[in-house]
Write a structure and sequence with these properties.
The chain is mainly α. It has eleven helices and five strands.
């Protein structure tokens, strides 16, 4: 039987509201409304678990895009602006209290100096896109620890990155080198290379090196002097251009012949035309 209850204030009789009369179907909307908060609580709990991972991924993407943007800007800027310092140069400046560095345009450097550097470090400089695949294969087959790095790779390392062996630096070098080759001319690459390369402890660039070793300006370097400067580039702190060891003398003679060869066969055309 239907229970009748009296309303406390009005005195009217009404069926109780706490449960439905027998035989009546309960309201599905009410049930859904009652279950909704539980579902919402579960969703919010799941969101709290996922949110830190999503935040970390967003930050990682932003950092990656920022790094790409910075390098893209630096690569584009150095097409027109001369680097006033490098990470390694700054490190040596802090360690030594100063460095000898003076920028000089390629037009004010004896052409034989650029040819000597190419003959010593990267004879196929004009023919590759940043990586000398033939030299890399030869280095792998011979097991050599050095010899496959191109002048373009060395410019990236010297200008944008740090010295030392690490997979991170190598990975960044591999990514930046083709981009630089795409934007810079070969003439610009060799110009920057000769200006930021280390020739002795605290001596950076061919202008400072020419005066440091021979007391002449870079425009007056002879073929022998240029070859000796190029001969010390792999180990500038352990070799001397003004007091060359027997090894440096032999290497300089080979570089001098190589510089003449690449001039004759046209492998210097990309930075001399």
């Amino acid at each position: 039987m239907l229970r009748i209850c009296r309303h406390r204030r009005t005195g009217l009789l009404s069926p109780p509201l706490d449960r439905a009369p027998a035989g009546m179907v309960s309201n599905p909307v009410a049930k859904a409304a009652k279950k909704k908060p539980a579902k919402t609580r579960k969703t919010r709990s799941e969101d709290r678990k996922v949110r830190p991972a999503r935040w970390l991924l967003r930050q990682l993407r932003r950092a990656t895009l920022l790094a790409i943007g910075i390098f893209a800007l630096a690569i584009s800027a150095y097409v027109f602006v001369n680097p006033w310092t490098t990470p390694y140069m700054a490190q040596e400046r802090n360690r030594l209290g100063g460095v000898d560095f003076h920028w000089v345009p390629l037009d004010d450097i004896a052409p034989v100096m650029a040819r000597s550097a190419v003959a010593a470090e990267d004879a196929n400089f004009c023919d590759h896109w940043g990586f000398d695949m033939g030299a890399i294969r030869d280095a792998i087959e011979s097991g050599a620890g050095r010899g496959a790095s191109t002048i373009s790779q060395q410019v990236v390392k010297n200008t944008y990155l740090w010295h030392g062996r690490s997979w991170l630096r190598k990975a960044l070098e591999a990514m930046i080198t083709p981009a630089m080759e795409l934007v810079w001319t070969k003439r610009r690459i060799i110009e920057v290379y000769l200006n930021v390369a280390e020739f002795d402890e605290g001596v950076f660039g061919v202008e400072a090196a020419a005066r440091h070793y021979f007391g002449v300006g870079p425009e007056n370097l002879s073929a022998l002097q240029a070859a000796r400067l190029a001969a010390i580039l792999p180990d500038p702190k352990g070799r001397s251009a003004s007091r060359p060891s027997k090894f440096v003398q032999r290497r300089a003679a080979s570089i001098r012949d190589g510089a003449a060869t690449i001039r004759r066969d046209g492998r210097s055309r990309c930075f001399e035309d």
